[in-house]
Model the fold of this input.
Amino acid sequence: MPLTPQEELEVALERAAKWLRGSKSVCVLSGAGVSAESGVPTFRASDGLWEGHRIEDVASPDGWERDPALVWNFYNARRANVATVKPNPGHAALVGMEKRWGDRFTLVTQNVDGLHREAGSKNVLEIHGSLRHTRCLGCGAVTNRGLEPLGDAPKCPQCHGRLRPHIVWFGEGLDDDIWMAAMQAADECDALLVVGTSAVVYPAASLVPIARRKGATVIEVNLTRTEASAQADVGLYGPSGVTLPKLVERLS
Ligand code: OAD
Done:
């Protein structure tokens, strides 16, 4: 008799937990799916549109040059959305994992919503920036503004220069120090969890082959198979707000 999907998940959870129990260091690569159950929309579920906007209009240097007010209004709307949501049990489970591994646990996230930190995760590398931070185009200051409304042409509190969202847009490079730390964590880990990401955006997705090359076990947590699935040793297919807590339960 073939296993039911529920039985398959139980077997996969047991395998993943066994690998994790034997791991000295753990790295996580998270994406939009981990925040989906909190009510933050994912990117690739919406026909190439992002809340009604073309991605190149609101998330690229060209879009910014053309219409900064449109870009600010878009990010203010996303900030307002995040202000109304809360971390979910998937975020909380990753906090539990960090407690177990301490400084041998690194959470690399592509998410800009800040929900991992809000949940209590500490060693978080936000490789695509943060909705909560602004960057001054004059003095370069990066400031945490929380989620307060910022208007459509905010000015730097220090030098009154123009501010932009502190987000990595398409066509822009990642912060060198943050990306080096992410690569090091993937390179040195014994297990990499790939959670709620379609794994199509680079360089983030390259953390999977980086970890594999050094023999790390790759565990995928997603609703469905993705571009990373062929490289995963085990897949936990279901909502991360359900599967991650089940996985953490099995670690003790
Ligand atoms: P995507 O929208 O591409 O992928 C979301 C993934 O989450 C998909 O694979 C879904 O199957 C999965 N998913 C949805 N709900 C889930 C749930 N409840 N539990 C588990 N998995 C779930 O988002 P990302 O992979 O994060 O970049 O996108 C990567 C980058 O592309 C983003 O960081 C952003 C975007 O362009 C920048 O802003 C620079």
